[in-house]
Amino acid sequence: MTDTIAALDRLDALRAALEGVALPLAVAGADAARDARKAAVRQIDDYIQPRLAHLDAPLLAVVGGSTGAGKSTLVNALVGHPVTRTGVIRPTTRQPILLHSPADAAWFASSRILPGLSRITGVVREPPSHEAGDDPDAALVGSVVLVADDRVPRELAILDAPDVDSIADENRQLAAQLLAAADLWLFCTTANRYADAVPWRLLDDAAARDITVGVVLGRVPPGAEAEVEADLRQMLAARGLGTAPVFVVTESPLDERGMLPASAAAAVGGWLQGIAGDRAERARVAGRTLAGAVERLAVTARAVAEARDEQLVVVRDLRATVRTAHDDAAERVHEATRDGVLLRGEVLARWQDFVGTSDVFRTVESWYSRTRDRVVAWFQGRPAPAVEVEHEIESGLLAVMVDEAGRAASDAWSRVRQGAVGRQLTSGIDLAHPSPDLSERASRLVREWQQGLIELITEQAAGKRTKARVMSLGLNVITVALMVVVFGSTGGLTGAELAIAGGSAVVGQKLLETIFGEDAVRRLAAQARDDLDARVRALMDAEAARWDALLEPVERGTTADALRDRAAELETAMRSVGAASPTSREVQRSDLVEAEVLDDDGEPPLEGEADEVRELERPSRWAPPPVLPRARPDHDDEAGR
């Protein structure tokens, strides 16, 4: 019991992990992975969890097959009277009919298995087979009709499923769901259809799940039984189903009720009776199917994990594309503020007004021999429109950042949308332009950087003498000089601009050196540049982060490694469950099982209970089939089975 509880916990964890996997991108294989994940979660709910929680519950045998394979005819023959509709109009089966012993009613009236299907309680009638059951109703395709019949053996129910190749999509999906919820299959095919592709896809799936399968080969022409059976058995062996029993039903006329001769389904009925009446065989079938389903679930989980990895690789590539575009923009701003470009035009004109460029360059060779006091006096004696220079530098820097951010937005947009995934991701969204408030934020960046320069200078001028020199010139003058030094490398200028900008930088640097010293000026310039670069990168990072609203939802959710871990943990837990003796588990069936299936008053649980009782015109000579909700299999008495 402890091992089973642990396995159920691991199963719940894997289910939650599967539910949490995000696969929104239309990458190759994503559709198949989404379908596989959905089918895996549904099988956990429909079969694996309820079977693991109730290892001793009655078996469910699902009768499946292609259109016109005679599934309903076989089911009617197994119980000896028409309970499910036959005919030539397709589809004839829309609501699956689940036949069970009255003693097993409580197991199937609750939502223990197939919890997503509503229950309709039916009772037996004996019209001709083409009128059996209800008229096909597409609106009720999500329901299952429960029919209690004394002729169904205890401990085994039979479910007539829709066609696996039905013309109705919902029928095909329901057929696949029901087959996935089965403990064993009765797979019906015919002498002229057994080599079709659709049946073999399902039989391959059965082999992969290691489910117990009985193959019913119907409508075999008299005299051809041995030849057709031999060919079918050879095909089964090649697909790993060599041990599956094959039941040959020779083509024969139906009686007035549309029923096969009683002998036609005798072998199939005997096989089912043998399983139902043998406790050890029931445990073997249930354990084998459960183990195969869990193994297949783990394989599916790993395949979904691979698809999850693929989604994250695509997201990382898209994020790198966006990041590269904005990193390149930050680098271009860095180059523009390093090569002297910002010191052209109006900035140069204002700087000339500030330092008296003509006089300076006539005396530039003798500048180095001047004393610090004469330099200061020269600057003090010249009216300095520092605010104008500062404004021009701010305007130039702002224009460069806004222009490069716009270019980065356009580059990222065009690169992302080159692929189908990018176009899907950006559908209905426009990130081709920078943020509407970019100019305002960039302007604030420049002002905050300038304020940072003032703080650097103030920190550097800690001594009384240095502080006095700074105050004598004014912080604005010193700040402008530092900005000119930062922007004064002249790689981007030529001709007269080269001479003016380069000379301007020298003037600014020598001014700062007379106040702070050469080493201190180098540190100040490096700190100022690093601070500006960091702020520009932060601005571009914020622009790139606009893509997070598209990319982060893909990145959220279960990781691929977590999904693989949950699958491995379930496999480990299931090995412990499998190590326990099936016979011991069945002997331990106790009042705890009864308490889970029935409520305190001995009635079937209300949750998932059949929500409609539909009269099926039973013949007057029959009494209503008894419903014994408290009855459960008596494992101490196998007599009569």
TrEMBL record:
InterPro entries: Dynamin_N, P-loop_NTPase. Residues 574-641 are annotated as: Disordered. Residues 62-195 form the Dynamin N-terminal domain. Coiled coil: none annotated. It comes from the Bacteria. Signal peptide: none annotated. Residues 611-620, 631-641 have a biased composition (Basic and acidic residues). It comes from Agrococcus pavilionensis RW1. Residues 593-610 have a biased composition (Acidic residues). This is Dynamin N-terminal domain-containing protein.
